Input
Amino acid sequence: MLFQKIGVCLGFGFWVLGFLPASGQTDDLPRRGFLGLDIDPSKPGPVPRTCLVSSVAPGGLAATLDVEVGDDLVYIEKHLPANRSDLATIAKSLRTGQRVTIDISRGGQSRLLTGILPEMPREKYANADVIYDSVVGAKGQRLRTILTKPHNIEGKVPVILVVGWLSADTVEAPDGTTDATSLVFRGLAEMGGFALMRVDKPGVGDSQGDCAETDFETELAGYRAAFRAIRNYDFIDPDRVYLLGISNGGGVAPLVPETEAEEARIRGYVSVGGWVKTWLEHMLEIERRRFTLLGKSPGDISDRMKGAETLYPEWLIKGRTVEDIVRERSTLGEIWPDGSDRSHLYGRPLAFYEQLQKLNLAAAWSRVKVPALVLHGQYDWIMSREDCELMAGYVNANKAGLAHFKELPATGHTFQHYGNMEDAFHSKEQPFDPALLKLLTDWFKERNTK
Output
């Protein structure tokens, strides 16, 4: 899955203490259950359409039922998860306190295992409290927010609001995680002097809705609701807000404030792997990189790009459906990244990208008159370096030196560490580089002293 992480979050982590309700509020958004297992789609089980269990998380239902790595996962509540997407859908449907039956096969013997689904673990930190709350999105859906409150604060603190990626991955950062983005979130929560605010998009984590059918405008409304909710917390200075945009969020972050008064509350931007050109330009650029990294010959790449130069304008500019375009010219079906599913792209509905195409991010970034740190990974094959350089240039046109562009060595699309571009393309990730986190924390701390 592009534009943030690979795979799905199924609740790996540990039980935590110290959950605090929001000041003066009661969170009525149910917490999802902790299934606590993952499967490897590359390792089919002996039962048709099944996969082997690849990991079991301590504290989850699977661990309490003694599910083991290498077991053939057949059914969960009579649903057969043939891939990770299926497993994520099934896990999302389960509720804390529900009696759940898992059917596995081990050594050729079928086993029915039943237990009570525990609650998903909550984040914990030694020097910060964690507030699990919610906001109401554009369609009346309750969206999970996670806010950290640093200990030993004097007066009100500034807040970092995360504007997230495209894919359906949760913003939660469980204890013991090895995920690069989660490690960044944990580092920001632990640096002191700042609150950290995150919101899960519809259908992700605890949030209500269906991410696969959520368009961009609905998602953006969720970030705006979280931004407005900052005023609900008496330990936060609502006029010192920093926006951390990641991937798609790294481009659209300036759209979160809707008025001049709201823009005045923003003290700075950090964009990681963002974009600023039109979405059509992005699609043509990423397709050339994708075809190259797939090992296509120069001639084949040229032929495929001719097809892309037909397919994407017909869809994004002329407004035709992808299905109709491919039906008229079947060879274009080989170009479409999601294969036979021509109603979605990268797990999101086509309306999402049609709305992105209508944006004018160059105009939005040209209005930014506060410090901006614009980051691009050396091995980011998804977004171009030129987008990030343009973004910084638009801000610096307002005042020289206001924005700083930096290319991150040996870094992928966002915070992942790789040995080369091919490894980044194939998700062969190396251990997280803490120097990246230090770059971010140093920048925020420097802003906080001015």
